[in-house]
Design brief:
single chain; alpha/beta; 15 helices; 8 strands; 12% strand
Amino acid sequence: MTRPPTHPLARVVGLWLLLAAACQRFTAIGEHDLDSPLAAHARADGPPPTLGPLDDDRRHLLFTSPTDPEPQRLGGVTEAEVGRHYVTGNERGLVALAGQIRNRGGGYIGVGSDQAYLLVGWARSEFAWLIDYDPVVVELHGVYRALLIEAETPEEFLALWSREGRAAAHAAIDAHARTGLRTGLRTLYRRHRAAIASRLIATRDRCVAAGVAGWLDDDGQYAHVRGLVQNGRTRAMLADLAGARGLAGIARAAAAAHIAIEVLYLSNAEEYWRLYPSAFRDNILALPFSADAVILRTLLIWHVNRDYRYNVQRADKFRAWLGESWVGNVYHVTYQRPPPDPTGENLFEATAWPSEAPTALRNAARRKVRELLAAGVAPDAG
């Protein structure tokens, strides 16, 4: 996650929606829809690529890029979430994204913890940057690494998170983590084991109920995720989406290693900012995306269904939006979002280019950006 502002933009969202409503259009994607514009770019099912260890030169490139410093403050969309460590995801509808990223390969960049393995399993990514600005989340990936190396099947992996599997999990950490990290990783495991076990089982069950194979119920996907970890094709690193070093370093390393970014998962990090930080814009513009790469994001609708909207957008369109000075935040970029459905998936695609945005929205956004700048909200502050 990224460094948030103190106050969200919720109080002005209604105005923007009202002004745009007359000419708003959106593309709502049906349940696991494989015929949406973006899903058409998903690769056909087939055997996963054979991915061995990286050669020394590429490994050096990918694992020596700089990280961002630890934040002084962990924020949240509301004050109630300030300081919270998201050791598990709380997005319950990620299964809606499966058809949009299936078998894309290439590079994956994503914030958070368990979400990464689910998305990477669907995408069959070839290298994954597991980033977060919270060092606890980054360290937690070390626990995942040890248990994934130890467990040959999804069932064995889940068993290591169970109460009965505690001793075996500690042994796996001791066997597969560096000496200096073992004590801290065992502590993280003990502290968060029950919550993570519950989240993983719930994720598996939602995939099964939806009829969408996921990494915790499909041997092929699990083997792919495990193989990435075993072969050093995942890097957990401290990176702030609005930082000066982490994402910029990933962009340079990925380009030098000839890895095109296919999937960027932002969770709802963009909702933390009243104005997009300048560094965030620069970081997104610098990433070496493939021609049809996708951005995945979520937008909070907790008051409706204790979950999120799920949005997919082509990366080239997102970069075009970020290049417009009147675009202040994620609510402008996703003005096409339909009304939330308390019982549906709430998956939609942001299809518009910024030039297609309603005039009323552009004018209202310009006024709001000017007001926020005059009030001292600095986009360079993050």
